[in-house]
Amino acid sequence: MVVSSVADSATLPRNVDLLVVGGGINGAGIAADAAGRGLSVLLCEKSDLGGATSSASTKLIHGGLRYLEYYEFRLVRESLAERETLLSSAPHIVWPLRFRLPHQPNQRPAWMIRAGLFLYDYLGKRVTLPASKAIRFGDNSPLVAGFSKGFEYSDCWVDDARLVVLNAMQARRHGAVIRTRTACNSLSAITDAGGQSAWQATLTETDTGVRHQVSARCVVNAAGPWVSQLGKKLLPEASTEPVRLVKGSHIVVPRVYDGDEAYMLQHSDGRVIFVIPYENEFSLIGTTEQDFSDDPAEAKISPEEVTYLLDIVNQYFRKGLSEKDVKHHFSGVRPLIDEEVENASKVSRDYTLELDMAPAPLLTVYGGKITTYRRLAEAVLHKLSSVFPDMGDDWTANAQLPGGEFDSQKSLSAELSAEYPWLEPALRERWVRQYGRRVSEILAGAEDMTALGACIGPGLYACEVDYLCAQEWARSVDDILWRRTKLGLWFDDAARANLEVYLQAHATQGS
Which residues form the Alpha-glycerophosphate oxidase C-terminal domain (predicted)? Predict the structure, then answer.
């Protein structure tokens, strides 16, 4: 079931400067950047924000250590610099993570790893993150016998789905209209009131079938894995870049080891697998890479992928895992620039922007990675400078995302503990990591736990659901349990049913 959302209630404008099609990280980032430059912006997304690829990543802000093997120095440098920018702009959902890389002599040689880590430390601007170093694994190591040497380096964790939502909120803060469950069905070239070429777009609400007509001076196709399909649908006569769809799958299991470090494991096939602490009680393991040709919305993990991930973890860790340990799994499809190489892991994670000016300005986004979404958005607006010569300057590098107006999670948690001493510590810590400074909006006027409303399921209270529906475009159970939060890891069928009933009542009261 999908309910209506207060966040979706803004009237659709008839005319905008920029129509962004696609509510993943690239689309949301472009909408935020453009709105902050003074452009009128409408973003439409056919399902939920971050509902596909952007919520199915390995949850990392990273330079891509392995990309150095393919000489992608510019991409790595740009990605490394963005780590620091995002640490500053979103300290509630981005934080440092230390990685351990056990060394196997029969895999990449030690000198190659040392050289790669040296470049990794110095290619980008490293301000807050510690440098890499060689380490030894002692008797208390969670690794199987035989692993005594390794390396340690820094990258960052990110709540990917929340990064999308925060960028959409940033866009709305600057006047953009964000409309979820709304598909772009067609484009036709027109001449606007000023005599300029523009687009007439037909948008359809996917749950009601209601259609809208919107004119836009420029359209951005940021549809992710649907980019080529959408391009051909909207403009059948236009040419599109070849895109290679690659499915990546992850599994979630009970914690494989104690400690806050993540592990990067080398596989005999040349790929690497990450094992990352996840939501306190679990480990996130991924990712696989398989070419994919079906509908990206239907991507699911295969039994072979589960076996692949379990096998490599069991080669490294003492705690043996089996299929019954898999508590959750998810898959996403990445749209990579097709370079006609056999191994999908060797395909570049860089991006390409194509601007067609006839019959009206249309910019198409191919590829990209979550770490560099902000730089991609800047590049899009730079490319559109001839279309919008009066727009504002770059601004996002020094802007904090909604809720990020604080120094550290520890300091904010202490502040909230003093102001709301009755708030359960586990709930306070989760809210700090998800909402940052905006926790105060959820708690507005509350004086004790009863003021949070009904407990709908493990750790979820009515006031949080109300906030997510009103402010963050949440409309379904999965929106809340898997994208706005990760509480789906603890919800059983009865708790999900409780949430469904609450959302239905919420929709009835709001109608």
Answer: 396-501
321, 454: one domain: no
Give the pLDDT of residue 242: 77
What's the confidence (pLDDT) of residue 346? 45
> Domain for residue 294, yes or no?
yes
Over residues 474-498, the pLDDT tens digits come to 999 999 999 999 999 999 999 999 9
- pLDDT-flagged residues of the chain (< 50): 341, 343-346, 511
What the block records as the tokens of 372 is 């560099």
Q: Is the peptide bond before 287 cis (omega within 30 degrees of 0)?
A: yes
Q: Which of 398, 433, 467 is the last residue of a domain?
A: 398
d(CA 70, CA 48): 34
Q: For residue 217, which amino acid is it? A: R
Give phi and psi for 119, each to the nearest 5.
-60, -40
DSSP letter at 5 equals: -
DSSP 245-295: EEEEEEEEEE-SSSSS-EEEEE-TTS-EEEEEEETTTEEEEE---EE--S-
Q: From residue 508, give the alpha-carbon distance in Å to each of 210, 333, 484, 503.
A: 20, 35, 22, 9
pLDDT at 509: 62
Same domain, residue pair 271 and 230 = no
Residue 214 in domain = yes
Tokens of 130: 């510690």
Residue with tokens 């980019």, as numbered in its chain: 227
Q: In this structure, are 147 and 14 located in the same domain?
A: no
Cα 478 to the chain's mean position, in Å? 16
User: Tokens in use for 160?
Assistant: 């990917």
Q: Length of the chain in residues, anyone? A: 511
- Render pLDDT for 267-309 as a digit per residue (tens, 0 to 9): 888 889 999 999 999 999 999 999 999 999 999 999 999 999 9
Domain CATH for 331: 3.30.9.10
Look at residue 340 in the predicted model and tell me its pLDDT.
52
Q: Which of 217, 150, 227, 175 is nearest to 362 (CA)?
A: 217
Tokens 């529906």 sit at which residue?
A: 469
| Beta carbons of 459 and 430 less than 8 angstroms apart | yes
pLDDT per residue over 134-172, tens digit each? 999 998 999 999 899 999 999 999 999 999 999 999 999
Pair 367, 501 in one domain: no
Phi and psi, residue 95, nearest 5°? -150, 160
Please tell me whether residues 326 and 249 are part of one structural domain.
Answer: yes
